Amino acid sequence: MSRDSTWFRYDTAARRLTLALHAQPGAKRSEITGLHGDALKVRIAAPAVDNQANAALIGFLSEALGVPKSAIAIRRGAIGRRKVVEIAGGPELAAKVAALAASLITNHDSRITPSTQE
């Protein structure tokens, strides 16, 4: 994992990935659009009403990263745009996110949707 990345961290002992996200609810479609300061910007195709955007965010991350929804938890920021999300998973999950980080750093116009993942 890159030491330059401030938006994700993998704890090998706990087998847990922590992501700093900037969520944008009410988007046309759900997608990862790049970096927003020290957070990963994720557009969510659900309104920020009655926890719909948070549920859609968890569903999107589940599909994009290939993990069950039950492995994903919003630890901080449930009612704001800035969120800290924890995902339970092994080193392969950390490698997938590290590859995503590399692609975002080298290609600023990249957009990641579940259909563009392997």
Describe what this molecule looks like in 3D.
The protein has 118 residues and is an alpha+beta fold. It has a single domain, classed as YggU-like (Conserved Hypothetical Protein Mth637, Chain: A, 2-Layer Sandwich). It is built from two helices and six strands. The protein has helices at 52-65, 91-106, and strands at 8-11, 16-25, 31-36, 39-44, 72-76, 82-88. Strands 1, 2, 3, 4, 5 and 6 form a six-stranded mixed β-sheet that branches. β1 (8-11) and β2 form a beta hairpin. The chain is globular and about 35 Å long.
The topology string of helices and strands comes to EEEEHEEH
* Mean pLDDT reading: 86
Query: At the third CATH level, what is the topology name?
Result: Conserved Hypothetical Protein Mth637, Chain: A
Q: Can you identify the CATH superfamily?
A: YggU-like
Shape: globular
Task: Decide which structural class fits the backbone.
Answer: alpha+beta
Estimate nothing, just give the exact number of structural domains.
1
What percentage of residues falls in helices of 4 or more residues? 25-40%
Main beta sheet strand tally, sense and closure? 6 strands, mixed
Strand content: 25-35%
Which regions contain 5 or more consecutive residues with pLDDT less than 50? Answer: none
Secondary structure: number of strands: 6
CA(first)-CA(last) distance = 20 Å
Q: Per CATH, which architecture?
A: 2-Layer Sandwich
